[in-house]
Amino acid sequence: MPVLAEIPHGLYWSTPFARWQGGLSQLHSLKLAAHVAKRELAARGLDAGLFDFGVLGTTRPERGCFYGLPWLMSLCGGPKVAGPTVSQACATSARALQTAVREVAAGDATCALAIACDRTSNGPHLYYPNPGGSGGTGEAEDFILDNMACDPFGGHSMTQTAENVAKKFGVGLVEQHDLVLRREEQYRSALADDRAFQRRYMSLPFAVPDARFRRTVATLEGDEGIRFSTAEGLAALKPVIEGGTVTYGAQTHPADGNAAIVVTSPGRARELARDPAIRIGIRGFGTARAELAFMPEAPIEAARRALTAAGLGVHDLAAINTHNPFAVNDIAFAKATGTDVMRMNNHGSSLVYGHPNAPTGLRATIELIEELVLRGGGLGLFVGCAAGDSAMAVVIGVDARKGD
User: Fold this and answer.
1) What are 321-368's pLDDT values in tens digits?
2) pLDDT single digits (tens) 302-311
3) By the 8 A CB rule, do 330 and 337 touch?
4) Average pLDDT over residues 186-191
5) Spatial CB neighbours of 189, under 8 Å, sequence gap ≥ 6
6) DSSP state letters, 253-287
7) CB atoms within 10 A of CB 167
């Protein structure tokens, strides 16, 4: 099985995710991502001079974001580092990672930073001039809310895509709620022993800076705004769409945060790894698009393509993590691939800890890596859907010692 590039063990990180309008809502997402990257690199005795390429993944406009990756790298101490800014809705993380991997695999970079950030809170209110409009009046858009509510091509909501897939795969309301309770149980396992699993990749407590990034104004003990469910509470919820099956309890919530993964050659990865005996190889990617208004179905084909690229089958996988904006996503995926839906996402998922868009997939990929390390190695898959009925997947292989 070919290894396209490697990830140095321990050279990745994520902030806690904070619920919409929570503790990170007032911070410029690119500036915060640079602030965190600088701090995380310093904690490892490194700096941004390590990189000769970078990829920024982000999905919503921030002031100054026209300058993208070069600006972010300058802010975290890498003024000579260039690279693109990519945006593919909820698949942005996988696309940013693939872009970094291809640059390294082609020999055009030796060490790349794939970094993703977003702030769904306080999204921009945009005005588009239209001199041909009535009286020269332009058009306005609430960037976050309007795009979550309506696909501009099909005119449907994202919830409608979940209902369409639920009907196609025979997924009912009770089945979705049962999975929500299971995903929350899995997330709780990541909180055990003072959040021991999350501390493997997350600096906790997380120091929240002020808007000038000069002083700490608050701390987050972990993800902010998690609301655990009960069977009784879920049962009392009505479907969002009349006559449907998807409730607010069976879907994710908007959030803020950032995450990053370093990609490099095998030799350089061993030099930079926290434990050089642990090898983390990237083996394949897959992209797919489902038919119009069937977004939660797209990960099925994306996963198949990634596994084919890696020369693997789903039976070869030790772990699967998903971006699951709806519980329907995981249930449909399991039914189509013959996997056990209750054994996916063993340390939580975006269904529970929220969805800041661009960084969500990187965090899930990091958690996949750490699960494989704890298992003593193995093969894993991350897959997630994105707006426009699309999806991306990545296959990761870990060679590690038991008991790490």
Assistant:
1) 999 999 999 999 999 999 999 999 999 999 999 999 999 999 999 999
2) 999 999 999 9
3) no
4) 98
5) 197, 346, 347, 348
6) -BEEEEEEEEEE-HHHHHHH-SSTT-EEEEEEEEE
7) 12
For residue 86, the cross-strand partners are 57
Q: Which residues contact 192 (CB under 8 A, 6 or more apart)?
A: none
- Strand 5-6, strand 279-289: pairing: antiparallel
Read off φ and ψ for residue 137, nearest 5 degrees. -70, 135
What local confidence, expressed as pLDDT, does residue 124 receive? 94
Nearest to 256 by CA among 61, 9, 32, 46: 32
Reply yes or no on whether the pLDDT at 223 is more than 50.
Answer: yes
Predicted confidence band of residue 44 (pLDDT cuts 50, 70, 90)? very high
Instruction: Round to whole Å and give the CA distance between 287 and 304.
Output: 9
Q: Which residues neighbour 327 within 8 Å (Cβ) at sequence distance 6 or greater?
A: 176, 177, 179, 180, 183, 250, 251, 351
**DSSP codes joined into one string, 160-209:** HHHHHHHHHHT--HHHHHHHHHHHHHHHHHHHHHHHTTGGGTS-SSEEEE
Q: Which of 302, 319, 310, 301 is nearest to 364 (CA)?
A: 319
Q: Following DSSP, what letter does each residue of 37-93 receive, concatenated?
A: HHHHHHHTT--GGG-SEEEEE--S--TTGGGHHHHHHHHTT-TT----EE-BTBTHH
Using the structure block, give the residue that is written with the tokens 């997380």. 206
CA-nearest of 227, 195, 201 to 364 is: 201
Sign of CA pseudo-dihedral 24, 26, 27, 30: positive
Long-range contact set of residues 174-177: C-beta below 8 Å, sequence gap at least 24: 175/331, 176/245, 176/246, 176/247, 176/250, 176/326, 176/327, 176/328, 176/331, 177/229, 177/231, 177/234, 177/235, 177/247, 177/249, 177/250, 177/327
Structure tokens at 308: 């084919």
